[in-house]
Amino acid sequence: VKPINLETSRLLLRPYSANDRGQFLALNCDPEVRCHMNGPLTRQTADKRFNHVLTGQTDGRGASWAIIEKGTGAHIGHAFLELSDSHPFHELGFLFFKSFWGRGYGTETALRLVEYCLRDAGLPGLSASVDCDHAPSIRVLEKVGLKRERVAVDDHGPFFIYSIKRKLEA
């Protein structure tokens, strides 16, 4: 999957550039934003991850997008697609600055990425993992068609695995 520009009515999902480092670090070091993602990253870890995001866009390991609000040009979040440790399908993920929660941007982002990955990129399916108590993200995943498969457990506790398969044309 290649990180290309993707649009919705309100959002632009675009590949990262070096100029996005500050926003990426601010987002990933925020304890509230990452409270359901095993906690905030240290600045050093977030910086390394950003370097990985930039190189990953050219080596095919995954895809990441800066999420931009079209009306304001504000960098409001991050979306990614990566190989999953817990599922054979690529894993979808997204996070937003707290000031943009509750506006439907998660659903809009997830729906556009599901369409792109299953229809345009031809992936066989997508997966997502979500904390069992993270109701807003669970609602987003279910709204865009992912189904709960099972509960898994790691060092941080239990979480749900969701997935969606590409529908084969008849």
TrEMBL record:
Pfam families: Acetyltransf_3. InterPro entries: Acyl_CoA_acyltransferase, GNAT_dom, N-acetyltransferase. Residues 11-167 form the N-acetyltransferase domain. One of its GO terms (molecular function) is acyltransferase activity, transferring groups other than amino-acyl groups. PANTHER family: GNAT FAMILY, PUTATIVE (AFU_ORTHOLOGUE AFUA_3G00765)-RELATED-RELATED, N-ACETYLTRANSFERASE DOMAIN-CONTAINING PROTEIN. This is N-acetyltransferase domain-containing protein. It comes from marine metagenome.
